[in-house]
## 1
Amino acid sequence: MFKKINFSKRYSLLLAFILWFLTFSFILRIIFIIWQYDEVSFNLFTIFGTLLTGLFYDIGTISFIAIPSALYYFVFPNKWIGSWLDKTLVWFFTSLTIFILVFTFFAEITFWDEFKTRFNFIAVDYLIYTHEVISNIQESYPLPVLIFGVLAITAMILFVFYKLKIIKNTFHSKATVKDRTIILAITIVTALFFSFFITNNQAEWSKNRYNAEISKSGIYSFFAAFRNNQMAYSEFYTSINNKVAFNIIRNKLSDKNSKFKSEGLSIHRTITDTSEQEPSKKNVVFILVESLSGSFMKEFGNKENITPFLDSLAQKSIFFDNLYATGTRTVRGMEAMTLCIPPTPGQSIVKRPENQNLYTVSNVFKSKGYDSNFFYGGDGYFDNMNAYFGGNGFTIYDRGRGSVLSDKIKTTRNNINDDEVTFENAWGICDDDIYTKMLKVADAHYKNNTPFFNFVMTTSNHRPYTYPDNVIDIPSGTGREGAVKYTDYALKRMFEKAKNKPWYKNTVFIIIADHCASSAGKDEIDVANYHIPAFIVNFPEHSNQKVNKLCSQIDVFPTFFSLMNWSYQSDFFGKDVLQSNFEERALLGTYRKLVLMKKDQVMILSDQKKQAFYKWNKVDNSLKPLQMNKTFLDETISWYQTADYLFTNKLLN
């Protein structure tokens, strides 16, 4: 039977196509291993396991891709084999599929260059936001050369098939019903096996993250991410009794200034200022800076002098030098800063349905009489930003490239007009332009005697790393260092302009990164690549200090509210870092791994209800396994289980 299948010439092209795909996938895997030669494990067993696991997932991937061909060969009548219809259909769809797959291989290389991972939920997002992504590709890579290269490789593959008479055999051979049935059955059974019994997570067999990622198949990973963008905590992660979890977190959030409203499954409480000082009503400019890793600053050891202004600001502000981002995406930073909540598994709340009318920091500002405004230099449709901010009390200022807000979102959307733009790339207008727009809006609020909370999201520190020419000494578009230096330059310019405003003395500026520029490492979690700077600027000089307590993005606004001497309602998981009894900890993760870090101990929760406990060496950024600590584990579970419970059950409103 198998001999007959192997030499069935009608299936020559299908079998050659499968062999080609497996070969190219193997070559791509070798490229990644060589690329990350200083990070991957070259242990013989590990390398063999990486390649063998990769082949296994490649077989699963090609089984799905081959189903249309197997079906075609099954139903197409023998008497029409070799007809113009048969040749047209086979040539067209074979050429198109090879072109798409070759392009995908190139896309995997560029994606790896940016994220050091196979396709994941970020790639799924990129498929949705086509304008930004296509523009970014056009501005970052020589697209005509890339397309020509893909076409040339596709033509070369087809030429090889032609010269080996593979295509000729396909059009001059018949297949029995038995052969057709067996080929179709093998293809479908293989695909069903991978659908129901194999998960993408099972490819992560190696403790070395790079080996685990290289073991995956990019296409298979993409569709796995597409299916699992939202993950129910109780289904995927280790859980404890909800009441126990809430008791642990309520205890962590309790202090002399907090009074819980009710017992049970809630963290809602009243925060009462006990300073006996008058509440402040300073304006607030909050700037969430794209991809500003702590490692870019001289303050943290960088030698390139690309953040001179921020380094100077660290000496004359409330500067958090031991603060960690909650995630690796902009939407995670937005979620952490507005909701003060740990990262829940799957997609950020910013991108989930039914995320309007939540209790965010804008509610606190609104209770004090402030107007809240959100500024973004691109189209806020990207990453669902406009829907999230518009649905949670912010007026929108964005580029408005054509997307329309849902009628359910009751907010005002204001376009940033062409005459307000001096430079623009795929992601939006340059930082200098978005700050200029923000200052103009602040002027209008001051004129109307309305205190303002302006939330600005920057875009310049992002591939393609382009910015206005001749403003810094690094040419535009040459790399990350230039984009960081331009980011620093634009912030300095913003402060220079703001200092001439009548509202400046009564305005506080909060500057923090959304996430680091990179989060990839050989371990499960690369702790160092979550370290970000944060500044609170323009409080009285005696308030300035360097805060070296280990803390999180979710703590910044609770600390700020305390500095303002505000009493307010809170559903926030963050706390005032400046309190003497603040318990140091950081909460961070990916869309699948959830982490609690305290001092040098790191607990990681993974889907499939796994957990791991490590000692973190800050010097070499390595993780060393520790014996499991039940108390630490229960606390880690509690932070994430309660956060997920509150959102899922609509208790964050």
## 2
Amino acid sequence: MSRDHLKGATAAPGPAHDADAPFLELLARGAAAEAYDRPVLLARAEGGPGERIAALEHAKLLALRVRSELEGRRRREAELSALFETAHDLAGPRDVDAVLQAIVQRARSLLGTDIAYLSLHDPARGDTYMRVTEGSVAARFQQLRLGMGEGLGGLVAQTARPYVTDDYFRDDRFRHTTTIDAGVRDEGLVAILGVPLMLGPHVIGVLFAADRRARVFEREQIALLGSFAALAAAAIDTANLLTETRSALAGLERANEIIRDRSAVIERASEVHDRLAELVLRGGGVHDVAAAVSQVLDGTVEFLETAPAAAVAASRAEGHAVRHGHDWIAAVAAGGELLGALVLRGHPDLDPVDQRTLERAAMVTSLLLLARRSAAEAEQRVRGELLDDLLEARDRDPRLLRERATRLHADLDATHVVLAARLDAAAPDADQEAAARRRLWSAASHLAATRHGLAAARDGGTVLLLPLEHGDTATELARRTALHLGTAVHEAVTVGASAPVRGLAADPDRVVAAYAEGRRCLDALRLLGRSGDGAAAEDFGFLGLLLAGDRDVAGFVERTMGRVVAYDERRGTDLVRTLDAYFASGMSPARTKDELHVHVNTVAQRLERVGRLLGDDWQSPARALEIQLALRLHRLATPAPH
């Protein structure tokens, strides 16, 4: 649309524009939903014309839809922020009670319920007990103990699935007991939602949100409470592992007191205790633990993800390090999951204290692995959600986008490249294909985290948003990324890159357009048989647009010179014909005016108008080539005049 046309569209506001004004003011100040009825009621009271009242009614409905959408986005931002803060709590050295209390408080706040509470299984007594409550006012309710299979919580624990009741006392899907019903009645609860806390296949507790009135919990609210339950289970699991580690270290100290006469052995045990504690406190890695234990035991200790299966199985079953030839192997496990093993090389004679040292090091290693994995998975999810929001342009507030990116050490104001990556090898079945895609996403997320970028799974592959360093090009970045991801997943990975983009926070639509460009480059690479390679649009020119599967010639013409064609159609001008003559005349205005039989100033004015429509660089070699191709395709597609 031309600038003159836009001026004409906004010069004389009509009734519809007048109707919008009061609702825009209400949106600007965040007014309550009831306030949107006032302009309509006032117009009716004043006896306004029916046209204006109808316009006000229409504007009110639109404004309420906008208000609802804004509230939904703010609510989603608050939910993601709460989940990120909770995941951050898990990665820090906070007390588990404080973390669980924060989880229950955030769940109650975000779901807007009267009360939230968390119950845990007590293996010693075979029942469950209230661990944390928020908003409760009844002492009997806070001290409830539920037998297995009793109440709504018993149903959740038995089935390992969320359950919700909008009227607790009329619901016969679960077993009511006098004690539980009395506690619920004291608290005045009516609607209750419960989701399981899972550690592997086992339910260790239930997280609840409840209201003292009838209420329907939406699917998104059930999913949100489930996310909090997953974080609570991770906090409990981490706390249990930390307790085991502390207990193990305390056992080392007691052993030191008993065998004080063996000063050399005690010295080594004390040294490893100090080193492991220091490593945990300063956030060391598993290889740091192996190096520290190597020095203490005067041998070579390695962490291996794959070790001799029989020895690892024996170590897991016995709970101790076992001898394997001239080596000692200690399984690194957490719950029912095997994470790897610590292997002490060439040290067949190991006294009990040193054996215990190797076992404690394996336990500390499992704690570090779980903590790092929990933090990494939480960060990967948050990075993926921010990139998803940018790709779908759901959150257009530049300030909020920048704040979210800053928390992830990303800078949306820097120059970036959007890369579309996909595995080339076809998997034998759906499960193996899904596993391969997860590996690709994990490798891409790790690369994005180390490069201060973002990554998300999308369209059967992975999309990355990576900053472009000074002196680097999109092509070089695409090729390095393809090589890095292919090495990480042990399969060929093809990567298509967009041209560099800037100002993503101010205009998220640029990310969408850049991703589409990267996808086109990816398709072009695969069509050309360049699997496992990386390339950007600059490597293809206009061919990158024409090699797509649908061969969208009309779309290419529209993108290249659609504004000029539309301008001619609206104004009855000859800009397309002038462009054709200009290129046919070797881009000489003098020869162009002879071809068109017009004055040279007319040619100059027309070319100036073309520049305003297509951009200042329209005469650069690359753009000129694309425009000439588009002119020919347009001429072929346009019927000749009779």
## 3
Amino acid sequence: MKAVLRPSSRPSRHTNRHPVDQVLPPGKLAVYGAQHVLAFYAGAVIVPILLASAIGLTTEQLIHLINADLFTCGIASIIQSVGFWKVGVRLPLLQGVTFTAVSPMIAIGLAAGGGTDGLLVIYGAVLVAGLATFFIAPYFSKLIRFFPPVVTGSVITIIGLALLPVAAGDAVGGAGPTAAPTSGKNMAYALGTLALIVLIQRVFKGFMATIAVLIGLVVGTLVAWAFGDAHFGAVGDAAWAGVTTPFYFGWPKFSIAAIISMVVVMLITAVETTGDVFATGEIVEKRIGREDIARALRADGLATTIGGVFNSFPYTCFAENVGLVRLTRIRSRWVVATAGAIMILIGLVPKAGAIVAGVPHPVLGGAALAMFATVAVVGFQTLAKVDFHDHRNVVIVATSVGLAMYVTAQPQVAQAVPDWAEIIFGSGITLGSLTAIGLNILFHHVGKSFGPAVAGQPGDSVRLDQVNEMSREEFVETFGSLFQGPRWAVERAWEMRPYADTHALRRSFQEALFSGSREEQLELIQAYPRLGSQFVADGLSGEASLRDQSDKGLTFLGDPERDELTAITSAYEDRFGFPLVISVRDAESYERIVEQGRERLGNCENQEHAAALLEIAKIAGYRFDDFVSEANPIHSARTRWSTNR
């Protein structure tokens, strides 16, 4: 008995612990943490490489920047994932240098004369911007009401889509002037790594499936090494220890223009961080509130300040690793904390960094294709919660994603705008995110919010706020044709006002239908016309019935088909006392309608009563969609296009 009770009592202490807070065994923490580091490494070191090249730093200075970057990345990731006081969101979010800061930092460095002098002015701006972000975090978090699913879903989708070209660049051998030429071998490495990750996910379960990316990177690297395409010569040249010291390059210098530029960078980065936090919250199934955003932004600010002290740069949550969390389904924040510890180690041991740097670009690109696309999928899942019957939401998503892809596909666009606008147009993520936020404010917060059009015709439509203000008589007159005959269901739906959105309005009709008494429901069922009846074909049963039954040609049946259907509906009505109700638009064909009628003849009366109500609910749903599509020009055009395909 003791052997039974002892194990069962152990998990009870952790029953209420969220998967995010679970501490995994040390071995798994190490493996999962290493997987995050490998997925993160290339993105982590690219910023110091680009900056050093642009402002004219030496190779020795670049090596120190990379070590300092990795060291501070580790600290920042631990702060964000572990958290203390009101700092750190305590989610599996890995921190890295934001790409948004690259162009402004290069501009600041060159304006200050380049080299070390330029670097010191950059660090002065980074320090002040980090402190500013830390202190404005609670005020920025109050703007969470401006981040509904239509905004967060757009931003998350944009992040995933905008990162895909980065993965594609790695997959063909790396981007930039030093990139290797595109070749079939590079494609083989990239697609082979991707295929191996997919295969592991399909064949294996449990631990093996969760480290699919790590296995893909290791195997891909070994294969490339066997063919002479992975090089680790730098490992022998690298030192065993390399400690970054505060203000290694000298005391920072402060410039008002540089500080303003970097504060703007951090405000834009705050938007991206907010999107990443919401994305991770969706993945780990943890609700994100105002305080969570404030904690995440405080961590960004503190990490950026530490970066200014330890010779690094502005920090934000890395979307690359958000995709990895979704792909592996490992939600523990302690995995990211372990990854942070590994990065600190790599930052202190240059040889370890040289080994990680030996992963070929095509192998890394193949894994990144899966991870970045997974971020976009999280965005799709968030957008699924959006009411797209409201054409305003269609415009917000379409415009923000379209502009983001515009500058992502054509990066030279940034050269055609004034210098102050380059920071916005230089990043698809930045432009798309700001567009989504701005359009959401314009459509949903500026002036009177009329709500989506839910009935009527373009130019003479009825909007949701008007529906909420309707009298019972007006409401019944507007929506009475959703059901045949008696209006009690529509009247009871009116009593459920106000409606928050179109979905709530639709649900009110369904709830009213199923709340009726059996006598009321029977009266409603009996009001529906016979399938294929001449009364329907002549329009005598109403325009709605004519539209329903003409969908599968029941209003244009030949004599044999009409006689066949009449025989079934007559037999059904004789048996149950009410007409055979079928949602014609749900049926695949006339033959399936006949087959369904025959099958239902064998049911009992109670079962058919319930079945008829379900079919009536489906019919009402289609009629409601007709209302919305006719009132909404964009939705109507989309519906007509899909129908005519």
## 4
Amino acid sequence: MLLYSESPSHLKILLLLGQDADSLSLIKVIQSTELPCTIQECRDFHKLDQLINNSPQTFDALLIDLSESHLKYMQQLAYIINHLPIVVLAPLGCEHWIKHAIQLKCEHFLIKDLAGGFLSLLPMLLLRAINGSREQIARTQAELDMMEHRLSLSQIVEGSPVASFVIDCNHMVTHWNSACELLTGKKAFEVIGTNNQWQAFYSEARPVLADLMLDDALEKNVDLLYKGKVQSTNSICNVFEAEDFFTQYGEQGRWIYFTATPIRDACGKIVGAMETLQDVSLRHEVEEALQASKAFLAQIVDGSSVATFVIDRNHTVTHWNRACEALTGLAAKEVIGTQQQWRAFYPSERPVMADLIMNGAMADDVDQFYHGKFRPSHLIDGVFEAEDFFAHFGAEGKWVFFTAAPLRDMDGKVVGAIETLQDMNERRLAEEALKASEARYRDLSITDGMTGLFNSRHFYESIDKELERARRYGRPLSLLLMDIDNFKKVNDQYGHLEGDKVLQSLAMVIRGCLREMDSAYRYGGEEFIVILPETRNADAINVAERLRQRFADQVHRPSAGGIINCTVSIGVSQFVIGDDAKSLVKRADDGTYQAKHQGKNCVVLVEIKPV
């Protein structure tokens, strides 16, 4: 509780006097002086405690007009008023009462002389008592604050697990905690009270960082003593940090991170400095191992003959080896440190396979960009491989096989991705040449070399498939078998070369009369077969008649002169349940035979007669 007024311009005085005492003249005299004050009376000692402690307004002083009735309460009064400054007025001839006031540790009292001279001294005495009390309270508070500050600082320093020491304005060590003892090997009792803090760090006397902080000499001496090692972490608080290697710590020395912070008084003046030290050797070992690992990775990537690049968690390119430069035509310096790896592969920005891997893509995500071109790796989970054609690689473009795999940290978290690329152009060209060769060989194996129609071997492969389809789905199927009339006579009269031209002419007519689904075959010699899927008797006869007529209209002019007019006899059969290739061909062949006997150059349908 405040026992004095917060306003120094106006004082509040509590007047304690006897029941029969006359206060008017006393109050009048006090108020007539230049002392600005308000006086409140109290005549009941028992209400004094309540008045002092429960009043919404505090009092600056207690003025006691001492009477004999007060003497027996003086001891209790000491507990009630506590630190409130007191001025005691004792009646003339009752000076011995003053000893009771001394019990209150009261140093301010006056004897009320009959002439009233004490009244002229009273205002001055009241001010002295009030100012003295305030000064004492302020001094006591400052001492308590200092003690609390020192205690707090000691607790902070001593209780900290971080090695710490404190020096005062004279560079004398005031604190050196247990963590500092453990780190430096110097005991607190060896250092506290001295300015030998340098002995824990250096072989000869020189300022430590806290000393420079205290002398405000960092700017002048930092390059001399800590060149390239000190930096400010907070320009407002002037906290400085540094990192250095100390050979005397441990068997192989240790890296120490240390900071220096100024300690200021209430006015902002630097009165000391605190330095903290942390062993960061393990961090340096990890960083060195990381650098070694990065260098090792760089050697693996850069030394590989396989085109390879690496991106980090931000999709920034970190490696782009020479093989990648050669394949893509994009120099490493143009792409490393950027997120423009797409430039090597695509005309506009889009994710490459490594980007998709970095984003945790699943097969559906990859399919959006590499539909029908990729597959998951059979060896490693989360790895995808693809093959695509890149038109701007080289003069004519290249086929490239590429894979992308995640790079993970020790916790399994994806921190990057690596992509490899292999030029598959030669293999692709070889495969295409092989496919073309196989296709050519297959065509040759199923094609009649003279007419260009399918051969008889391929006929039996095809008819079986068409018969199976007709049986399964109940669809119609017809067959034409034709034989050139009097072909032997053409060969005998004009020679086999002219005969071959006749065969080729018939093949051309057949091709001109067929639909896309139909197929034609040279069955043997001058015999030809046509398969007509989805075709019934009537339609098959129409096709046969059209074919017969067109061939009959053909005029063949042999080189020896003259004109050759050839015709063809055609037998027609339609698939019925129970038919196989042999029976279906047999009926068509019978139709051809009948057409020959009917005068040739005609079409005959042979049907199975109902039983």
